[in-house]
Amino acid sequence: MNAAAARKAAGGGMARAPALVLALVAAGAFLISYNFFAMLFRGGAGGGIGAAASAGTRDPVVAMPAWMREAADTEARRRPFHVALTATDAPYSRWQCRVMYFWYKRMQARPGGEAMGGFTRVLHSGKPDGLIDEIPTFVVDPLPAGKDHGYVVLNRPWAFVQWLQKARIEEEYILMAEPDHIFVKPLPNLALDNDPAAFPFFYITPSKHEKIIRKYYAKERGPVTDIDPIGNSPVIIKKTLLEKIAPTWMNVSIQMKEDKETDKIFGWVLEMYAYAVASALHGVQHILRKDFMIQPPFDTRLGNTFIIHFTYGCDYSLKGELTYGKVGEWRFDKRSFPDRPPPRNLTLPPPGVPESVVTLVKMVNEASANLPRWDDGI
Questions:
Q1: How do strand 235-238 and strand 197-198 relate by DSSP bridges?
Q2: What is the residue-wise DSSP string for 154-177?
Q3: What is the mean predicted confidence (pLDDT) over 254-278?
Q4: Residue 35: is its pLDDT beyond 80?
Q5: Distance CA 41, CA 260 (A)
Q6: CA neighbours closer than 13 Å in the CB half-sphere of residue 245
């Protein structure tokens, strides 16, 4: 055999060898794939498609393995949020803060309260008050004299700006809350990464006020529907996002208050609209959670809610009939106690009053019964 023939023979052998290897690999891959899918359809080794279908799981392909589900739950518990509420040193604000903090600690200690991290009362009165030793407090300055135009809530965004700049906040997320919030069960972190969670208010309607909104959110920015029907509270949001939004929120609030038309139309919810607009200006939209809180007396049942917001007065006849707009024979209204806290052991509502109102009064009573020096109005 000459050299050329030898090279041809060698090449032919080399060509046949890879072909044989490829055939073996293909056969092996087929067997592996067959056994894998057969296992899934038989429901073996972790359930698979057959087990998932028979169990009625929502996953149409493969049920999430138990270890993966447990890991996801653990990760959710590792996303604590810091509770922050702005407040003044007025007696009216102090007694509500005491009740709020009492129930925060109760719910934080219960199973499911793992996400409820630290707590700060951001006090925008410029000086400490009598609650410094009872409630974790960070003192910030109020707006310059006259800048709030008698609208004390205008201090809220400015308080958050200062707190975010100066305080050391370990948690990645923040829950913006208010003194008249009562936790009725442990609150998980409802936010999803860069998507904050908020409660939708029926009276925040940007689309109905497009003419006003366009003063602060130009058409080039996008449709008015970009603006969520929310206020700043309750909101669970990433700290990094709030650090961007807060200064804009403050500036928009002041601009709105100084514009006579806007001030007249938005009134006492002006600062809420300002937060919604500021969020949209930064391209942030919120997950709207109706189960975030309820507002008695209009929300009558607790359902699956996490917070009772007692902003409205609750007036009822002795027959348990709502007399909203008219002082009832039985009533609970936080505004009845501007200079000192409500008395301990408030009279419970008459029969027929909804569970939301009954629960509210019972929780205020339990807090006042356990808080020292309640009647002193500290």
A1: antiparallel
A2: GHHHHHHHHHHHHS---SSEEEEE
A3: 97
A4: no
A5: 68
A6: 27
Distances (CA, A) of 200 to 30, 36, 162: 54, 47, 27
CA dist., res. 273 & res. 256, Å (int): 9
For residues 141-170, average pLDDT:
95
Taking the C-alpha atoms of residue 180 and residue 8, their distance in angstroms, rounded to an integer, is 91
How many angstroms separate the CA atoms of 322 and 275, rounded? 33
Q: Could you please report the per-residue DSSP string of 206-272?
A: GGGGHHHHTTTS-GGG--GGGS-S--SSSEEEEHHHHHHHHHHHHHHHHHHHHSHHHHHHHGGGHHH
What confidence category does residue 19 fall into, taking pLDDT thresholds of 50, 70 and 90?
Answer: very low
d(CA 366, CA 267): 34
Predicted TM-score (pTM) of this structure: 0.80
Q: How many residues does the chain have?
A: 378
CB atoms within 10 A of CB 264: 10
Residue 70 or 7, more confident: 70
* Interval 22-42 mean pLDDT: 41
Q: Which helix (H) or strand (E) holds 278?
A: helix 270-281
**Residue given tokens 């996303």 in the structure block:** 79
Q: What is d(CA 172, CA 189) in angstroms, rounded to the nearest whole number?
A: 11
